[in-house]
UniProtKB/TrEMBL annotation:
Residues 351-483 form the PHD-type domain. Keywords: Metal-binding, Nucleus, Zinc, Zinc-finger. It is found in: Nucleus. InterPro entries: ADD (IPR025766), ADD_DNMT3A (IPR044108), C5-Methyltransferase (IPR050390), DNM3A_N (IPR054724), DNMT3_ADD_GATA1-like (IPR040552), DNMT3_ADD_PHD (IPR049554), PWWP_dom (IPR000313), SAM-dependent_MTases_sf (IPR029063). Residues 93-135 are annotated as: Disordered. SUPFAM superfamilies: S-adenosyl-L-methionine-dependent methyltransferases, Tudor/PWWP/MBT. This is DNA (cytosine-5-)-methyltransferase 3 alpha a.
Length: 757
């Protein structure tokens, strides 16, 4: 692995040990991805920021400093207004005196006053200039407010402060937000052509280029109904932005539609549907003009939704209180204020070091005091927002096999990679310096090899104390026990790095060896891969692409207990009972604690009674996963199994092709963003009720080429191009296969149990 040393130079001959990565670099157009296309000469891309500010930012302005500057600005504004009134009164009095007072009036009020930089008594009639605003201190920078703040976003590309917009981030639908100043975001100034956006729903901030912004008036094309039906946070965001739009347009909506309705959530849902209908018809009667921000909200210092600074609850949609009778809890208000003012991780960690606060009372990931549970790996707590981030990020891996995010904060600009071959964890420099000690990151960079805080022999490193029972806590964290009809499946504790062995797999109805491809991509060592497959074309693909490493055993009905344990199955009807038979024959004997995992898949479009019978036999409920979240095609499937974290959120990675256009060859244009489920039938390529082909080429509709279908499924290009196979035959193979990103999502936790390269 390459290493970026203290001097910043990349050396491919340095040992793997601790690899120091600069994630910022990959946001530039010149960054190159690590992976199949030259990972040894480039850096890993930066993960999406998940915090409203980054620890250690030299341009970070604390909340208290913001309030002081805001109070000072308001005071100066009042003085300026008072000065204008005084000057107007004096001019009126002097104009009414008469010609006999002309000379005296000329002496007291010169026609061309000299500008004075100092502040003059506002009662003096000789004042004719506005006092110069005081400079604003920001870290090591001192800037004049009139010269710096007022010129923000003056690049002639629209989207000024206070405007309501739709913003697009990779992996998310178009999301409503509000343009704010960099001062309000508490970060450094946005580059030209970009804007700071505060997102409705969670109140977090992002820098978004203007090409990825649309005005809120494009509601009909930007609003995504499936996301609204599925994600509570999106519903909350739509509710908040339409409430704001209604107030601006002079069309307020009452919260409680029916006073007899005892269920507030139902009232809010009806209320939101009314606002959506109003927005879908063009925000009548004022239209887009009525959505413009009032002059007061165009100021860079105007507070916007102070409640949004409170730690957001991403897991539940809490209805706002009724507008007519707002209820405010006076007891909880000081606590919220404390989180806003002093909730930075640096200050709280300092208090922990001074024995003034218990580390188990703060979220070690972000510094919030609104904790919800204990951190599964280290001594300390975790808030609800960071729990959701941990569920999404803990098992996301880049092309090099390492975690995409910091193990502690699920973010980070610069990360340290563990030098243990069987460990894949990363720790960001900010967390290491803050929790372990100042300068610890530089010490780790020079250490060769560097074992991370989950692998080293010491349990305590500064304030970072590894839990003795972290393995059991981690498995409970991802336990799939959401349904009470069945007992939770047996959970296996993650294996320590030195005890992990290569995996052995029995794949029933293997298809084109998707499981083996994903295991290799994850870097998991495969001791033996036994596959049951009767399709000759599928066997040919598996033999050619995996160089004979698959042992084919023919029909599943001929498999006996002498073969290895099963890991996956794809089939319906009576063949399910063959899977059930082999599942019981392959189970470890009583007392054998070696990890034993199984997975069963079927289409969502199945009979209710069949689904109930399968769940009854397998003694667990399925998890529904749709590949549309991580690919350019819809592909909803049920998965039964005991893999760790099967029910964790499905999140797209940076390299996933989420749009059909990303999968097409040069010179071809996609007519649709995503295609419907691709099956073995040729007409499944056609889209919509009018059966349109999904691609334009040379002003004509065209089908998807085989290489493009392979990209849609996540396979390498030309993966099925063997044995002079026809296009229809290759589509049949792909139509029966799994979506590679979905299987990567399911198999990623296995890196905690089996040896890796």
């Amino acid at each position: 692995k390459p290493k970026l040393g203290p001097s910043g130079a990349v050396s491919s001959n340095m040992p793997k040990k601790c690899v120091y990565r600069l994630l910022n670099t990959l946001w530039s157009d010149g960054g190159r991805l690590r992976g199949r296309q030259g990972w040894d000469i480039s850096l890993r891309r930066r993960p999406v920021q998940r915090e409203t500010f980054q620890a250690g930012d030299p341009y970070h302005i604390s909340r208290r400093e913001k309030e002081e500057l805001l109070a000072r600005w308001r005071k100066e504004k009042e003085e300026k207004a008072q000065l204008g009134i005084t000057m107007s009164d004096i001019m009126d009095d002097q104009s009414a005196v008469g010609s006999q007072k002309e000379e005296e009036s000329a002496i007291n009020l010169p026609s061309t006053p000299t500008p004075q930089p100092q502040h003059t008594d506002p009662a003096s009639p000789t004042v004719a200039t506005t006092p110069e605003p005081p400079p604003v201190a920001c870290g090591n920078k001192v800037m004049t407010r009139s010269s710096e703040m007022d010129l923000e976003y003056e690049d002639g590309r629209g989207f000024g402060i206070g405007e309501l917009v739709w913003g697009k981030l990779r992996g998310f639908s178009w999301w409503p937000g509000r343009i704010v100043s960099w001062w309000m975001a508490g970060r450094s100034r946005a580059a030209e052509g970009t804007r700071w956006v505060m997102w409705f729903g969670d109140g977090k901030f992002s820098v978004v280029c203007v090409e990825k912004l649309l005005p809120l008036s494009t509601f009909c094309t930007s609003f995504h109904q499936p996301t609204y039906n599925k994600q509570p946070m999106y519903r909350k965001a739509i509710y908040e932005v339409l409430q704001t739009a209604g107030m601006r347009a002079g069309k307020p909506f009452p919260v409680c539609v029916s006073a007899d309705d005892p269920d507030i959530s139902n009232s809010v849902e009806v209320h939101t549907q009314q606002m959506i209908e109003w927005a879908s018809t063009g925000f009548l009667p004022s239209g887009a003009k009525g959505l413009e921000p009032p002059p007061a909200e165009r100021s860079p210092y105007t507070e916007v939704y102070p409640e949004m600074w409170v730690e957001p609850e991403a897991a539940a949609y809490t209805a706002p209180p009724p507008a007519k009778k707002p209820r405010k809890n006076s007891v909880e208000k000081p606590k919220i204020k404390e989180i806003i003012d002093e909730g930075t991780r640096e200050r709280l960690v300092y208090e922990v070091r001074q024995k003034c606060r218990n580390i188990e009372d703060i979220c070690i990931s972000c510094g919030s005091l609104n904790v919800a549970l204990e951190h599964p790996l280290f001594i300390g707590a975790m808030c609800q927002s960071c729990k959701n981030s941990f569920l999404e990020c803990a098992y996301q891996y880049d092309d090099d096999g390492y975690q995409s995010y910091c193990t502690i904060c699920c973010g980070g600009r610069e990360v340290l990679m563990c030098g243990n071959n069987n460990c894949c964890r990363c720790f960001c420099v900010e967390c290491v310096d803050l929790l372990v000690g100042s300068g610890s990151a530089q010490v780790a960079i020079r250490e060769d090899p560097w074992n991370c805080y989950m692998c080293c022999s010491r349990n305590v490193s500064g304030l970072l104390r590894r839990r003795d029972d972290w393995t059991s806590r981690l498995q409970l964290f991802f336990a799939n026990n959401h349904d009470q009809e069945f007992e939770p499946p047996k959970l296996y504790s993650p294996m320590s790095a030195e005890k992990r062995q290569p995996i052995r797999v029995l794949s029933l109805f293997d298809g084109i060896a998707t499981g083996l491809l994903v295991l290799k991509d994850l870097g998991i060592q495969v001791d033996r891969y036994v596959a049951s497959e009767v399709c000759e074309d599928s066997i040919t693909v598996g033999i050619v692409r995996h160089h004979g490493k698959i042992m084919y055993v023919g029909d599943v009905r001929n498999i006996t207990h002498k073969h290895e344990r099963p890991v996956r199955y794809d089939g319906t009807g009576r063949l399910f009972f063959e899977f059930y038979r082999l599942l019981h024959e392959a189970r470890p004997k009583e007392g054998d604690e070696r990890p034993f995992f199984w997975l069963f898949e079927n289409v969502v479009a199945m009979g209710i009674s069949d689904k109930r019978d399968i769940s009854r036999f397998l003694e667990c409920n399925p998890v529904m996963i749709d590949a549309k979240e991580v690919s350019a095609a819809h592909r909803a499937r049920y998965f039964w199994g005991n893999l760790p974290g099967m029910n964790r959120p499905l999140t797209a990675m940076m390299n996933d092709r989420l749009e059909l256009q990303d999968c097409l060859e040069h010179g071809r244009t996609a007519k649709f963003g995503k295609v419907r489920t691709i099956t073995t039938r040729s007409n499944s390529i056609k889209q919509g009720k009018d059966q349109h082909y999904p691609v334009y080429m040379n002003n004509k509709e065209d089908i998807l080429w085989c290489t493009e279908m392979e990209r849609v499924f996540g396979f390498p290009v030309h993966y099925t191009d063997v044995s002079n196979m026809s296009r229809l035959a290759r589509q049949r193979l792909l139509g029966r296969s799994w979506s590679v990103p979905v299987i990567r999502h399911l198999f990623a936790p296995l890196k905690e149990y089996f040896a890796c390269y």
